[in-house]
Amino acid sequence: MIKGFKSLGTVEESKDGVMLLSGFGSVSYGEKITCTKRGVSAMVINLGRDKVGAVLFGEVQSVSAGDTFTSTGEIMSVPASYDMVGRVLDGLAYPIDGKNTNFKKVKMMPVEKIAAGVMERQGVDTPLETGIISVDSMIPVGRGQRELVIGDRGTGKTAFTLDAIINQKDAKNRPICIYVAIGQKRSQVANIIDKLEKFHAMEYTIIISATASDSVALQYLAPYSATAIAEYFLADKKDVLIVYDDLTKHAWAYRQMSLILERPPGREAYPGDIFYLHSRLLERSCRLNDKLGGGSITSFPIVETQLGDVSAYIPTNIISITDGQIYFETDLFNSGFRPAIDPGNSVSRVGSAAQTKEMKKIAGRMRLDLAQFKELEAFAQFGSADLDEATRNKIERGRRVREILKQPQYSPLPTYLQIAVIYAANEGYFDKIDLENVLDVKYKLADYLMKEKNKDITQGVEKFFKLNSL
Q1: Most confident range, picked from 111-120, 409-418, 458-467
Q2: Contacts with 339 (C-beta within 8 Å, 6 or more apart), sequence order
Q3: How far apart are CA 425 and CA 263, in angstroms?
Q4: Is residue 17 within 8 Å of 64, Cβ to Cβ?
C-alpha cells in the first residue's frame, strides 16, 4: 500500500460479527480496518477476488450493510504492559475487571508474527515444575516447551494447569503466567479467578477471557492476543507460561467464521487451513538463545476429546505440532485416581533434559517399577495364589508407588518434597504401610520436611534421604 493512501470498503453482509466487504483497492491479510461512523474496528482474515472477509471487534449489531470501513495500513495489534499482570482482560487485551484502565509504558504488539527461527533459539533444558509428581517425574516439561494437555471433558485438564500456575509462586525465576479462557462460561472463568486469588497466584498471572457469550471474533483473537503479550515479556528476557483453554473451542470459532465467509469446508466442515491456524500460534512458544536474552514462552494447549478419541481431526493436528502430550483418562478419573494422568499414553519429547539431576536419577527407577507392576498385575488376575513371594512383593510395591501419585487439587508439591516422597517409595519405606494409609503418610512426611525448611531444607533432604549419594 502507498504510504498515506487509504482504501475504502463497503459492508455487503454482516453475520455474527463476520463481514464481507467490497471496494477495497488495497488491503492486507491481518490488517486493521476501522469504521469511524460506528467507532469499531475489524481485522481482515480473508482476501477474495472481489470481496474481503473481516471479523468485527465490537457489538455485532453495531454494523450493517452499507457501512464504510477504512484501511489503516497497520497489522492488528494489542497493547502490552507490565501493569497487566494481575488483571483480567478481554480478547483485545483491554481490562474488564473494573479496575484502573490506564496502563503505563504500553507497547503495541502484533497479534500475528513470524515465530523465532532455529538460530534464534536454544535447547530446552530448564525445568518448569508443575508441582504434580506424575508429571515432574515421568513427563517433565521444560521452559520453552509446548506440552499438549488432552482428554475428555471433566477429567481434570484445567485443574492440572491451574496447579501448574499455583506452583510457580515460589519458583526460581518465576514465570509470568497467562491463562486464556476460550468459549467458556463466565461463571467458570470467575471461579478460576477466585481460586487463583485464593492461592495468591493472581499476583503474577494475567487472565484473558473470551467467553461463550462473546463474539466468535474475540474467541478467535484471544490466544493470539495472549501470545503477543507473552512476546512483550519475552523481549524483556522474561519466562512466560501460557495456558490455552481450550483450542477445541478455538477451532469451533474459526470454523464458524470460515463457513460464514463461504470457504470450502473440508474434513468435519473445518476449513483447509485449520492446521496452520494452530501451528503458527504454537510455533511462537520457544526459548531464545542467550544473545537474545534467554527468555522463554512455555505453552499448555488444552484439547478436548470425545470418548477418548485422540485420532480425531483437531487432536491429531495439535499432537503433531506440540512437543508431547499429557493424557487424562476418563476411566482413571472415574475410579478416583486424581490427577487422572495415564503415564502410558503421555510423553514428553524433551524428556529428562528438563529435569534436575536428582529427579532424573530417582524417577527412572519409579517408572520401571510402575511398568513392571502393570505387567505383573495383569498376569496376577489369572491366579494370584500361584505367585511367588518376590512377585507379590513387586505388585505390592507397585500399588504403593501408584498410590503416591495421587494428589488433591490445588496442592502442588515443590520438587524437593517430590524427590523425598519418590525416594521413600523406591527404598521400600511405604511397603509395610497399609495401602489406604499411604497418602496420609505421604503428606505427613511432606509436612515434616516443610517444617525442616524453616531450618535448612537442603541439609534436611541430604540428611534424611542422602540425595548426594544417589
Answers
A1: 111-120
A2: 132, 134, 156, 159, 160, 163, 328, 407
A3: 57
A4: no
Strands 296-305 and 51-57: unpaired
Model confidence over 78-108: pLDDT tens digits?
999 999 999 999 999 999 998 988 899 999 9
Which own/partner pairs from 314-318 qualify as long-range (CB within 8 Å, at least 24 positions apart)?
314/247, 314/248, 314/251, 314/270, 314/274, 315/150, 317/274, 317/275, 317/278, 318/148, 318/150, 318/247, 318/278, 318/282
In angstroms, rounded to a whole number, what is the distance separating the alpha carbons of residues 378 and 295? 46
Report the pLDDT value the prediction gives residue 274, as an integer from 0 to 100.
94
Backbone angles phi, psi at 287, to 5 degrees: -125, 115
Residue 357 has pLDDT above 90, yes or no: no
- Cβ atoms of 354 and 141 closer than 8 Å: yes
Angle at CA 442, nearest 5°, toward 468 and 407? 110
Which of 349, 365, 367, 399 is the catalytic position? Answer: 349
Assess whether 263 carries a catalytic annotation. no
Read off the pLDDT of each residue in 260-277 and give the average, rounded to a whole number: 92
Q: Which amino acid is at 208?
A: I
